[in-house]
Amino acid sequence: MKNSAIRGFMMLILIAQLSCKDEISKMVFDETNKDITGNWKVVQLTRNGEEIGKRMDLSGFYINFKNDGTYDLSEELPFVLNEEGNYTLSDPQYPFGIILHPKGQTNTVPVKFQFPIVKGERQLSLSFSLGCSTNTYQYQFERQN
Amino acid sequence: MNRPFQRLKYVYLFIGVGMTIFLMHCGLTALTVTVPATAKANERATFYMHSGAQPRIEEPNTYTTQLVAGIMVPKSWNARQNAVLTYTSTKGNGTLRMIPDSETEPVSGLNWHQAAKKMFGVGPNLIDDFEWIIYRSTQSFTFTNNEDERADLSFDVKVECSVGSENMLVSLGFYVGSSIENLRPDDTDYKKFTFSNPIEIYEGEGDLLDFVNPQLSTVQPVKSFDNDIITLSFDAGVIETELQNLDDVYIQIKAFDESDQLLGEINTRDIKSKLKPSAGKKILLDIWPRGYFNMQPNAQIARLEYFYTDGTGTKKVGYGNTDQPFKYTFRCQ
């Protein structure tokens, strides 16, 4: 009885170790380029740290980063710009900003960017001011499959 | 067999209680502040924080730290640029410097100013247009165990700050702490904070901006442009109005440009104009004015005039429960 308990326990440790090993072998130590392509939908919106997204209808709002370096977006909600165009990351490996180049314009719009993993999925977090510079908005996007 | 165990239990209990008392007496004494009841706009006002150290230190019997002090003031005061903090104590006098934004408060992972805002909030103020700014003494101090029983360890922090150009009634926030501690939520010994009685800024610009007393209607954020998302809220708990106890309340709103030309108007009572329930008797509506009024790219909304109405539009509540509209002017400074 005691023996089988010990054996069971040992097995458990072995399984735990194996699962660890598996994880480690999957780890890539060289930082990969961040891939933000895809169609992103807003899941959270905060203004000066206060969640306001739940009170507003955000369902129609998306931003689509395409493989060819262009983006388009819906026009139904306030955003840092409303025109489609091209995008680049400030640094492909350690990006802290997305630089948006709206079509037909000479100016570029830098947007603060974070790429956290929430519940196992990448989220795209963009923060900027819309009107008055004392107000900061943070849009949290989830990739649509 | 059982007895020694029981005795041991009491010993542990005694140690536990002893430790609790020991910990409870550690750190800083309660923070009190001296803030004038009024100050003239654009002038410099002086505030004082009073506290003291109560060193209860285990081995090695000394505790070396810097004084940390913080203030919460309206953003429009530009205190980051113009506030000056100095301290006086029996261990010497000196100045405090603003902690750089690049320095992270370890528990929250935010910078010290953001961490303080998150930890302490805006106190009795009902509208949030405030910033916490945290400073640290350039000198450090060493305390020995129970030093306060032998010497006076009280200290004062003096805050000199311009009170901005706007008329307002506002409650200010103050904090003192120790630089080798952090803003962990469970600690009540090494961080002391308090909010002042309201101070009125007079002879300045604009209508009195009352942060402290409940308002029938407020607009957040206080500073915004028409491309911001603004929240109009109606608090039915402030005074009795015609709209008392109604489930459905709507906004009736007009947008004007700089030269008072009407740019847009929402008179319909539907999902677009209906307010949503919030905390207490508050209801609110978030709007993005440029989208809400379908603005052309070259048009700019300068101000809003609005009423709250019932489902038929016959019961209408305006500024101070009169037939005059509530007004909101877009401005950033």
Automatic annotation (TrEMBL), chain A:
InterPro entries from the UniProt entry: DUF5004
Pfam families cross-referenced by the UniProt entry: DUF5004 (PF16395)
Name of this chain's protein: DUF5004 domain-containing protein
Annotated source species: Sphingobacterium hungaricum
UniProtKB/TrEMBL annotation, chain B:
Pfam families: DUF4961 (PF16328)
Keywords, comma-separated and alphabetical: Membrane, Transmembrane, Transmembrane helix
Transmembrane segments: 12-35
Name of protein: DUF4961 domain-containing protein
Protein source organism: Sphingobacterium hungaricum
